[in-house]
Amino acid sequence: HHYFGSPKLQLSDFRDYTGSQELTDLINQNNSKLSNVRLSPDARHIHVILRKPQVGLVTFDKYERPLLVQNQKKQDLWLTRTVPIVDIIYLDHHNSGGSAVVAVVYENGKAEFWEFQEFKSGWHLLQTSDLCNSPRARVVSVCVCSNLIIWCEERPPSESSPALSSTRNKLRYCVCRRDFEVEEGAVSLGGVKIALHNNPKFTVASSGDYVHLLPDLKVKPLLTISKFFLTWSPHHDSFTVSATCKNVPLKKLSAKESDFKKLVTDCLGYLSALEPPEIYNFSPTACGGLLLLLSTGWLCLLQKDGTLRKVYKLADNCLVQHGTHTSLCMYQDTVALLIEQNLYLIDLNCGRELEKTVLKREGLLYANRAERQTPHLLSETGLFVVVNRETDSRDCNAKMKPTALLVEAVFEEACKYYQQRSLSSTQLTVDILKKGGRFQAPISLASILRNYLNAGLRQKGAELSQNGEGGCMAGQDKLMGSLEAELKALVSLEELKGSLVRGGVKEVEAVCESLVEKEVVRLLSSSELDKEALLYLNSIFSIFPCQAWRAAQAALQLHYNGEGCLSSRAPPDVWKTVLGPAPSSLQQQGSAGLGLSLNNVPLYKRALCLLSSLNPDQDQHQDLEVELLLVSGRPNAILQALRVLMGRRQWERVTQVAQKFCKQSPLLNKEIFTTLLCEVAHHRDLDPYLELLWTLCPEDFTVTNILNLVLKNLPSPNTQLTIGLLKPLLRKVLQRETKPSQRYADILQSPLFPPFKEVLVCSVPAT
Questions:
Q1: In this structure, which of 100, 562, 588, 731 has its CB flanked by the most CB atoms within 10 Å?
Q2: What single DSSP character describes residue 689?
Q3: Rounded mean pLDDT of 282-306?
Q4: Domain range spanning residue 445?
């Protein structure tokens, strides 16, 4: 880690900038509005946007060769306008010769493009363009991302449209984009494209190849639509919806859907019950991420994949309020946070506070392109850099403390991380984490691994120990000892990768087979499969399908028992892992472990789902489907199997299944008999099996039940059901009744051949 201390080195007192006295005066006057100050990436140009009462822009420049321009008339970028300026953005075109091209964007959609050339004495207007299509549009925020100018604009309703409701009135903004290219003496603009419409007022902030759409930071959010923010990737054509109260994104979707209301409709109900912290300030990290300072006092890092990681928590007596001056910026592994006059330096990896310094004045943190790893600060007296504390013997103890605390800090942070994401109520401790092999902290682990592989470091540690200074290494050595198993596994993995690169085809196949088997056995033997492990297991099956299934067979210890059936000698814990439900987030996404594990879905349905995707032979597929349904023993599955068999007209198999499963329960007996009686009413294919079917009649069935059921299911007159076919059943039921009804005596005495409906039409009471 870079360990910064309180000393600050002044880089400039502004006297090397043009108009230095005016710059000092302006910053003094606008001390509470340092948010209106902009610096160029190389800090050679300082811009102050004037808001009230005067509207305009004032620029102060630092010339590399001031002697050459002393006798020349310099062209300054001082603008006095009647239309407010939204922002000034640098168009990154990598031209040599000390030139820079900026766009000054106004609220009315106008954009002025200016170029700075030192050898041509300053700033020159290249062109003025209309950024927006509509003359009535009002730009509220703007940024540049790669070769795109992106802005959020307000589009007022037409005079002929009806008055909008309060909520709809908030959704009158849209996010637009235009390609640009800096050419010799001009800026070429592409057409306007709408990325999002019907959205609330957004502050657009670019970071790397991503654009973050944040709610309006100047007002307190009142509506549900202000409780979340979006991350847009123009190059990947995707949106990510996030909230400050969730560590993972709410949803990810294609940017082809540009209607904001459709994007977030399914999130509104969920968010209405939440109170996410407000965003008080933000700072891009230049690699796709975003630093966020929340109203709860948490400093968080929003990664480009939408993951929100908590970094540092301010003390309760240091919490910020609306209107409090704040500034933040990231410098490689260190975050600088300025709250009024309190400067905090924080380790991004473990969240440790490295230093807290009280400044004499408020300031503005900024990044210098030439020294990205060092914090830079602008205040009313000049530009400063926070330098490394001098390394001497007095600081050995100061450096020992964070090193010695590294062991517990890393594991404690990992405990918090896993506990927050665990569904178990069991408290996770550092000891459990060390023994369980569950430690995953890629940033810290990579740093530790570099030292582990560096033999020279250990030799240096031995030398320091001989000199009595080995205490500084004790903490890191202890941590590496705790992670010995993980480190060895990583080293062996690197060796394995090397053997794959150097080996022949057969050797590679053998290594892959062995590796896949080890990984599958390891995953299936774990106590539970979390989301990451399940996705990893699915990737193994998709990349190495044959090897993975062989590995699964070995892990489950599957064997044929000689009777056409499989047996398994795997312990119950393995089957519990295989057949257990997937994490809830993967149920939502429709994924499953081994293609089977779906939450709250019976095992036979999981098997049927897999069967439908694997077996193209329809007859064989239906045979297997019937077997799966029957072996499940579930009433609905048995009835479904009966319907499949009846559809295939396998009547002997139908009666066998009915006879077997009617004994399972009275309710299932009733369902099966009802299904078969309806089938008897439709055709004569079951006539050879009627004697068997009548024995399945439930005890509580009455003659009235039977006759009504048959009447409701009689087909067309072409297929006639005669009374003679039903007489044995009706006689059996009447004899069973304690008080047989005389109403049906005529039916039992009637001839055998008349159609069933003609006999019953006047005999069966209405129900």
A1: 100
A2: G
A3: 90
A4: 408-421+428-451
Query: What residues pair up with 239 in beta bridges, in sequence order?
Result: 232, 253
User: For residue 390, what pLDDT band results from cuts at 50, 70 and 90?
Assistant: very low
Q: Is residue 673 domain-resident?
A: yes
32, part of any domain: no
Q: Which two tokens stand for residue 43?
A: 């800090």
Residue 159 has pLDDT above 70, yes or no: no
Give the residue-averaged pLDDT of 367-392.
80
Quote the CA–CA distance of 352 and 347 in Å, as a whole number. Answer: 5
CA distances from 569 to 437, 517, 541 (A): 26, 17, 22
Tokens at 404, concatenated: 């010695």
Q: Does residue 238 sit in helix, strand or coil?
A: strand
| Cβ-contact 123, 75 below 8 angstroms | yes
Under DSSP, is residue 474 helix (H, G, I), strand (E, B) or coil?
helix
Least confident of 146-150, 318-322, 623-627, 706-710: 318-322
Residue 686 has pLDDT above 50, yes or no: yes
321: three-class secondary structure by DSSP: coil
- Going through 656-753 in order, the beta strands assigned E by DSSP cover none
Lowest mean pLDDT among 179-188, 523-532, 627-636: 523-532
Residue whose token pair is 């007296």: 381
Give the integer Cα–Cα distance in Å for 234 and 178: 11
Closest CA to 31 of 473, 374, 340: 340
Q: Check: CB of residue 515 under 8 Å from CB of residue 493.
A: no
pLDDT value for 595: 42
Cα end-to-end distance, the chain, whole Å: 85
**Residue 414 near residue 28, CB atoms below 8 Å:** no
Average pLDDT over residues 597-601: 56
Q: Is residue 447 helix, strand or coil?
A: helix
Three-state SS across 361-378? CCCEEEEECCEEEEEEEE
pLDDT for res 464:
41
Under 8 Å between Cβ of 692 and 660: no
Beta-bridged to residue 101, according to DSSP, are: 91, 115
As a whole number of angstroms, the distance between CA 190 and CA 178 comes to: 5
Place of tokens 């902009």: 38
Q: Is 275 domain-assigned?
A: no
Q: Could you tell me where the DSSP H helices lie in 30-115?
A: 66-69
| Cβ neighbours of 630 (radius 10 Å) | 19
Residue 234's contacts (CB-CB under 8 Å, 6 or more residues apart) are: 145, 146, 148, 150, 177, 195, 209, 211, 255
CB 173 within 8 A of CB 140: yes
Q: Decide: helix, strand or coil at residue 629.
A: helix
As a whole number of angstroms, the distance between CA 693 and CA 711 comes to 18
Cα→Cα distances 547→283, 514, 529, 574, 649, Å: 47, 9, 20, 19, 41
Question: Cα 677 to chain center, whole Å?
Answer: 54
What CA–CA distance (Å, rounded) separates 91 from 604? 60
Kind of pairing between the strands at 79-80 and 186-189: unpaired
Q: What is the mean pLDDT of residues 195-215?
A: 93
Adjacent-strand bridge partners of 79: 57
* CB 701 within 8 Å of CB 668: no
H or E element: which one contains 420?
Answer: helix 406-421
- Which pLDDT score, from 0 to 100, does residue 400 have? 36
Task: List the beta bridge partners of residue 117.
Answer: 122
- Residue 524, domain member (yes or no): no
Query: Considering its fold, how many domains does the chain have in total?
Result: 2
Report the distance separating Cα 151 and Cα 178, nearest Å: 9
How far apart are alpha carbons 80 and 83 in whole angstroms? 9
Interatomic CA distance for residues 675 and 666, integer angstroms = 14
pLDDT of residue 652: 93
pLDDT tens string 444-497: 555 555 555 554 444 544 444 444 444 445 555 666 666 677 677 777 777 877
